[in-house]
Design brief:
The complex is a heterodimer of chains A (196) and B (429). By secondary structure, chain A is α/β, with parallel strands linked by helices. Chain A has helices at 2-17, 38-53, 57-65, 86-100, 109-125, and strands at residues 70-79, 104-105, 142-155, 158-171, 177-190, 194-195. In chain A, strand 4 (158-171) and strand 5 form a beta hairpin. In chain A, helix 2 (38-53) packs parallel to helix 4. In chain B, helix 7 (109-125) runs antiparallel to helix 8, helix 8 runs antiparallel to helix 9 (158-170) and helix 9 packs antiparallel against helix 10. The chains are: A alpha/beta (196), B alpha+beta (429).
């Protein structure tokens, strides 16, 4: 009996020491720390791209040019107080654009650098029939770029964080801004003051 | 037994440990200092103070140009500091009954501000100006909060405001840069003389767009260290023993010393409180040499003074808790005497019980000597505008008499046209 009691007393400690891991669905909405997270990135990208592709510039371009626009995603500047991986947000926007089927998409400048290096390599080592020629890249018609801002209001254990994402679709030839979108998210975060 | 379990988490870096680390720093063996911290971490840092371990290591990793590793620890430290906002009620009660080490280390405001500085510098070293800007924003937000909520003490940091303005300039946020610069100048005007620091004044050349800029920080010296001072007062024999238990050569643990003294003295009250001890270092000033031109560095931050200011600010509440604890423990000892004597109908047993409880109370009495001790005592800086290109930059370290006692060479520094290079060096001797 004494041994059983001792084991029962110690057992919870053994379980308490190991970390708890649980796999969750990638589309599960769960806010842990109160900061910008993957749900925010997905939600903003999806809504803004939908808004972008349904606005006036798109039918105007397609009727004038008889083809779908070629878009490239530029830089998204982080002006918030959090270390936000803007790469995740950019990937979400690219995904939303490609999956819309309404635009043609070309690689970003970083990706192009890698592709050009590969073409140089092919120039030297690949066979004549299979090597890819230079000077045949498709130039983008528009660049999508943006900025992520935040305003924080904090007092004691409460904080109100306001995120504002501004995106612009810019004509690469004329520098015209053909679309200017905005999405706002507000979060109220409350931390416990006391625990036992 | 409950007290023993609680106090197994009452570890704090001892003066001897901090001095050993500082000795290695003074010999420029910064990596060895970090390894020493790692080898002693289980003994010196309680689990609840893991953020202090991260901070102590992060500074050293930054000093040896390991910005990624340093930032990893600083990020964790910042997260932990934010989590610690939630105060444990039982731990707070413990400060009135056991000692001040029952609560997790409450990072001083100036220490918190410097976590932003070090993270920003780490990002700059990795050419991530955007990351540095995030830290600058956090720093400015934090200091704005202090200015709004505190009437005295550390209400702003002129150096960190100035540094933030440089970072904002680097990312083209000129409006934020102007505001931070103005806040910096206001803070230097208000506190500069008291802190013994100079307002940075680096005139910009007219052909600035054709030049590149080198911003050089020299982290100098050692922060004053907190050490324990103990006083034991015997009620009945008007005796007192004052000691700094860590300072004896006997290699006897301070808790044991306290307990022995209390036992010997009988009805004793033990109080332990922290004291600040200045650390000596020889480097007094520095100058950079580029292309045979000499540029002095100016003392723009005095962390020793900030540590002292924070210490003085906190001492009244330290004294309150110390005296309260002494009374609580004395009452407990008297009650133990009474209960034991009544139960055994033997006064001698009561005396023994009182001695035992008194000794236990004394053994548990520990001053809070925790601090982010690997910070430098002061920061000197200069801004130098030079023709773009690759060059060696020499940092000459001088003593109080102007003699050159050390030198650091930054080899092959590439200064871009219209751009900036941030450099830093630590001296602790």
């Amino acid at each position: 009996m004494k041994k059983l009691c001792a084991v029962l007393l110690v057992l919870p400690l053994a379980f308490a020491c190991s970390p708890s891991v649980k796999r969750v669905e990638t589309n599960l909405v769960k806010d842990v720390g109160g900061g910008w997270n993957d749900t925010d990135a997905q939600m903003v990208a999806q809504e803004m791209i939908t808004d972008c592709l349904s606005s006036g510039w798109y039918p105007k371009y397609t009727s004038r040019n008889g083809k779908e626009p070629v878009v490239i995603v530029g830089t998204v500047v982080n002006n918030t107080m959090e270390h936000i991986n803007t790469g995740v947000f950019i990937e979400e926007m690219q995904r939303a654009l490609i999956n819309s089927g309404k635009v043609d998409f070309v690689a970003s400048s970083a990706e192009r650098g890698e592709l050009r290096t590969e073409r140089l390599d092919q120039d030297e080592f690949a066979s004549e029939e299979t090597r890819k020629a230079f000077g045949k890249e498709i130039g983008a018609d528009f660049m999508l770029s943006g900025v992520l801002n935040s305003v924080v209001d904090k007092a004691s254990n409460k904080s109100l964080v306001f995120y504002q994402v501004n995106l612009k679709m810019i004509n690469l030839e004329t520098n015209q801004i053909v679309w200017n979108g905005q999405k706002q998210i507000k979060k109220y975060v409350k931390n416990s003051k006391v625990s036992w | 037994m409950g007290l023993a379990v609680v106090c197994s988490a009452c570890a704090a870096p001892s003066l001897r440990y901090k001095t050993d680390v500082n000795k290695l720093l003074a010999q420029d063996k910064i990596e060895a200092a970090d390894q020493h911290i790692q080898s002693k971490q289980k003994r010196m840092y309680a689990k609840k103070d893991v953020h202090l371990l991260y901070l102590d290591r992060a500074t050293l990793l930054h000093d040896v140009n390991k910005p990624k590793e340093s930032d990893f620890l600083l990020a964790q430290a910042q997260d932990r500091i934010n989590d610690l906002y939630t105060k444990s009620a039982t731990a707070e009660i413990g400060t009135l009954v056991i000692n001040d080490l029952t609560t997790a280390y409450d990072v001083a405001d100036y220490e918190r501000a410097f976590t932003f500085f070090y993270r920003a510098m780490n990002f700059l070293q990795q050419n991530d100006v955007s990351g540095a800007a995030v830290e600058a924003r956090k720093a400015v937000f934090f200091l704005d909060g202090l200015r709004g909520s505190k009437k005295k003490g550390y209400t702003d940091d002129p150096f960190i405001q100035y540094f933030a303005s440089l970072v904002f300039e680097s990312v083209g946020q000129l409006s934020d840069a102007r505001i931070s610069r103005q806040n910096a100048l206001n803070a230097y005007n208000k506190q500069g003389k008291e802190m013994g620091v100079q307002t940075p004044n680096f005139p910009l050349p007219s052909n600035i767009n054709d030049l590149g800029e080198v911003i050089l920080f020299h982290y100098n010296g050692l922060l004053p260290l907190k050490k324990t001072q103990t006083i034991q007062l015997a009620w009945d024999r008007a005796m007192s023993i004052a000691s700094s238990p860590e300072e004896t050569r006997d290699q006897v643990a301070p808790e044991v010393q306290n307990a022995l003294h209390a036992g010997i003295m009988g009805s004793a009250i033990t109080i332990s409180f922290p004291q600040l001890e200045a650390q000596l270092y020889r480097v007094y000033s520095s100058a950079a040499v580029i292309d045979a031109q000499r540029y002095p560095l100016y003392k723009v931050a005095n962390l020793s003074a900030l540590a002292k200011q924070d210490f003085n600010e906190k001492m009244p509440s330290v004294w309150f808790r110390t005296v309260t604890r002494a009374l609580v423990k004395r009452i407990a000892a008297v009650q133990a005497h009474k209960a034991a004597a009544e139960a055994s109908k033997d006064e001698g047993v009561g005396v023994l019980a009182e001695m035992f409880v008194g000794m236990l109370g004394s053994a548990l009495e520990k001053a809070d000597t925790r601090q982010w001790f690997t910070l430098p005592a002061e920061i000197h800086m200069t801004r130098i505008f030079v023709a773009p290109g690759k060059r060696d930059i020499h940092l000459l370290l001088r003593d109080k008499n102007g003699n050159i006692i050390g030198e650091k060479v930054f080899e092959g520094v590439i200064v871009p046209r219209g751009g900036r290079v941030f450099l830093h060096h630590r001296s602790a001797y």
